[in-house]
Design a protein that fits this description.
The protein is an alpha/beta fold and about 230 residues long. It contains seven helices and seven strands; from the N terminus they run ααββαβαβαβαββα. It is globular and about 75 Å long.
């Protein structure tokens, strides 16, 4: 008797527990299973991805800025090469007076020429121009046949004139405000540039960038020797 009562009580408790238990996953009426948490990529992988994106953006920026800036101007002709005849030109004198004519100063007088293209706004020119001015004075004092000629490129007279005067230049300087000589005739797209021209008017040397004193002395010795 007691055993039947205990059995009935156990069956009743089992039915109650089954009724109160949550339905199995996926069964009708069961609440939806929450999605698994999205795992974030490791910190090192995230840092690498960010670095790749930044590098790509920087490369694109440098291509647009430096790539475009390094291209020669569309109006530029070919750069005058060594062995070519130096193109003649006439420019208004920066400091006034007679126009600056290359052939009249050089080969027409059987004189070699140091032809320097510069500008007051050009940082390397600010160091090179006083060197050229001092050397030209020394060459003149010792009776050297070499003629120095300057071409001031795309400069404002208000800046160019004081720059030339303060540098101590005594040789002729032409003002090329339209780049007709610098770009069209000589094919240049930067300053400073210096051409060394022998007494027959032929280019025997071309230096891109600022000259040093040893370079200048070497070229002057060559030009003076060739004219003797």
């Amino acid at each position: 008797m007691h055993g039947g009562r205990h059995l009935h009580q156990a069956l009743t408790e089992a039915d109650t527990a089954a009724a109160n238990a949550p339905p199995p996953e996926g069964a009708p009426g069961s609440p939806p299973t929450p999605p698994a948490a999205v795992r974030r990529p490791p910190r090192r992988l995230r840092s690498l991805a960010i670095g790749v994106i930044i590098a790509a953006a920087l490369a694109a920026f440098l291509f647009l800025v430096l790539g475009t800036g390094s291209k020669p101007d569309s109006s530029s002709g070919p750069v005058v090469g060594v062995g070519s005849v130096a193109p003649d030109f006439t420019l208004p004198a920066l400091l006034g007076g007679a126009p600056v004519n290359l052939d009249a100063l050089g080969k027409d007088r059987n004189r070699p020429v140091v032809l320097n293209f510069f500008a007051s706004w050009c940082t390397p020119c600010q160091k090179e121009t006083p060197l050229l001015a001092q050397t030209a004075k020394a060459e003149q004092a010792k009776g050297s046949p070499v003629q120095f000629v300057g071409v001031d490129v795309a400069d404002q007279p208000a800046n160019a004139v004081p720059f030339v005067q303060q540098s101590g230049i005594i040789y002729p300087v032409g003002a090329d405000t339209t780049l007709q000589v610098t770009s069209t005739l000589y094919g240049l797209n930067g300053q400073p540039n210096t051409f060394f021209i022998d007494a027959s008017g032929t280019v025997v040397g071309h230096v891109i960038g600022a000259l040093t004193q040893p370079q200048l002395d070497q070229w002057l010795h060559r030009l003076a020797g060739a004219s003797g």
